[in-house]
Write a structure and sequence with these properties.
four-stranded antiparallel β-sheet, 4 helices, 306 residues, 14 strands, six-stranded antiparallel beta barrel, elongated, 34% helix
């Protein structure tokens, strides 16, 4: 009896569901966003991670040894080429110079006497007034006196240079680092173990180094041979650079060097860009994102990412 009543109930329910679905109709179409493509001249780019490095760096060392007398710069400040940086106590070098100067004058005096004696012997030997042996002795003394003068002048020049080297000047312009020694310490100079006094690093311009992987190197090379990119003999490529605290590529650079072979360990090519840094904002050691153009600009259809 139960089955007799359940079957008609099921049929009624199914009929009502089909009736409701027909009344609602098909689902509405999904909304679609459209945009008109734009034809523009653009260049494709690749972005690489790089690091800023100084165009040159000098480890300032002394050429002579002695006790440090004074320091003439402020750590972390700009110095110009030729500025006095350190001074080693010059008194020892002054004494050596004075001794060398006296030795040079003595040598010149002996040379004058030797020239006079030789001139006299040369006249007398023609008159047979002195022996040939005496003449040869005077000639030998003259040659020795000439050599003594040359040696004395060399000693004097060395003493003069040592005196000049007691004053240590900046060989380049740049920002000075901290001084590694203080007044009163002994400075070793003129050898492989010379005391490091400070470092000087220029900030303008500055280099940005980055590496390009092997596949991209091949891509750039193919573009070059197809006439769509500049190469080593062509015009220098310009790059855009962003630093880690900004999404904007606000700095411009020019590629001025590419290594002559790929690194065998990493299969990458070292590339270097020269960047102007007149306000000294960029500091060596900073990381950078370098955007490099791929090929020459061309017309392309552009559609918004959305």
């Amino acid at each position: 009896m139960i089955m007799k009543y359940l079957l008609p109930l099921a049929l009624i329910t199914l009929t009502q569901c089909n009736s409701d679905r027909k009344a609602d109709g098909p689902p509405p179409p999904m909304p679609v966003m459209v945009a008109n493509p734009v034809l523009k001249t653009v260049a494709l780019t690749e972005t690489y991670t790089g690091r800023f490095t100084p165009i040159e760096e000098v480890d300032l060392q002394a050429r002579v040894s002695g006790y440090l007398e004074s320091i003439h710069f402020t750590e972390g400040q700009m110095v110009k080429k030729g500025d006095l940086m350190f001074r080693i106590d010059p008194r020892v070098f002054d004494a050596v110079f004075s001794r060398a100067e006296a030795g040079q004058k003595q040598a010149v005096a002996r040379l004058g006497l030797a020239e006079s004696n030789f001139a006299t012997a040369e006249k007398l030997v023609k008159q047979s007034a002195v022996s040939k042996e005496e003449y040869n002795t005077r000639e030998s003394e003259l040659a020795q006196a000439q050599a003594d003068v040359l040696a004395a002048e060399a000693n004097l020049l060395t003493a003069k240079l040592d005196r000049e080297f007691a004053d240590i000047h900046a060989p380049i312009s740049g920002i000075a680092g901290r001084f590694n020694v203080t007044v009163g310490n002994f400075i070793s100079g003129g050898s492989a173990v010379a005391t490091l006094l400070t470092t000087i690093v220029p900030h303008d311009p500055i280099h940005c180094n980055f590496e390009v992987d092997e596949r991209r190197v091949l891509q750039f090379t193919r573009l070059f041979f197809e006439g769509e990119a500049s190469g080593r003999e062509g015009k220098q490529s310009e790059v855009e650079i962003a630093v880690s605290d900004s999404d904007e590529f606000e700095f411009k650079g020019t590629i001025n060097f590419a290594e002559n072979q790929l690194d065998r360990q990493t299969a990458t090519l070292q590339i270097r860009a020269l960047v102007e840094n007149k306000d000294k904002f960029l500091t060596p050691g900073l990381f950078a994102r370098v955007r490099v153009p791929v090929g020459e600009p061309a017309e392309r259809l552009l559609v918004k990412d959305a």
